[in-house]
Write a structure and sequence with these properties.
The protein is mostly helical. 85% of the residues lie in helices and 0% in strands. It is globular, with a radius of gyration of 23 Å.
Length: 445
Amino acid sequence: MPNPEAETVIATTGTAPLEWVRQCRTALSSGFVRNVIATFATRVFLIGVALVTTIVVARLLGPEGRGLYAVATALGALGVQFGNLGMHTANVYYAARDPQTLPSLIGNTLVVGLGVGAVLSAATGAVLIFAPALVSLNGTILFLAVLWIPLGLTYLLAQDLMLGVHDIRGYNLLEIANKTIPVALMGMVAWVQRVSVARLFATTVLATATCAAWGLVRLTSKYSYPRVSFDLFRGTFQYAFKAYLITFFAFLVFRADLFMVQRMLGPEQAGYYSIASSMADPVWMLATVVGTILLPKLSAMSDLRSKLRLTRRAIMGIAISLLPLLLLASLLAAPVIRLLFGSAFLPARMPFLLLMPGMLFLGVETVAMQFLNSIGCPAAVVWILGSCAVFNILVNLRVIGGYGIAGAATVSSVTYFLACTFLLWSVWRVSRRQLTEPDSSAATV
């Protein structure tokens, strides 16, 4: 006799592959998924470019020169993070929510990028000239590092406006140009045999200036002419200031250890540690891509439940995707370092392995943060990342001297775990509170 239960199981099993195919087609037809794929493909290409750049710098300059180059890059990047005043996240948030504010956002970007950036650049240069022991940079390389601050700041803010108006193509083209121009210029420097730390770093500064100008021209020609609006700046200051503190603390968590290694152990150990960090960055690249596309998507959504559903899917997808990548990267660490950088850089293997667990937590943290940014940057996030930054610095002061770069990597992974745990708790707490309110569609905190 026929078995209805068996027939049901067979029918369900038979339609499961078709349902899976249908869901895949639906996902691929989504603009969000297409943007993630396009941006991820761009980042995969840029991994190769970054590897070429890292190899060229390491081979031409050696461990000590590579360490100085990394410190100069970190100094400029720290200046960019310190001087953006939270505009980088505010640009995405407000451009996505209200595209009519774009002309004023472009004008305010110029004021912050070139004006505030120039002041910060001059102040940083003056401090380091009179206190050279703070960072082992001087002369031309110091000048280029501080010059990069206003240029990098303008470039960052222009990019974020492109994200806010969903110009993903322009955003990706800008990224490609900013990473490939230095490689071509470095090849020219090596060909004329005029290699130095300053000359190689100058290629990065020139590329950033070129791409910042290109991004602003694209925005003004395609969307609107800029105008400065101090009313808009005042109106967005509360959000921007919280975003500023969040990004600054996150940057300290992510990069302060390199400065501390350089200061406590010297440029050679900083060179090894910079290689480990550079190799770890691509492992969680997918999380950065998803987070990049997720923020304008979430900011434009008004329904909190829809935001939560999209955020949960993104977090689960990132966690599942990162686990095999972490294992594969750990297994291939030693042969890849030997092949790409030479046996002289094998001491970078151990800190790289110790950074791998942290990359999982960092990836999940990156996606969760976009949900919090899209609802107005709750103040609790500032306290969470500020506490993690203090923890990272204080523990590294005790650990680096005794355990070297391996200790610094371990502290980083522990810090990422703490940040991830408390940020997920913040997502749960904020969403639970808002969903119990009469109007659960509120988009801001």
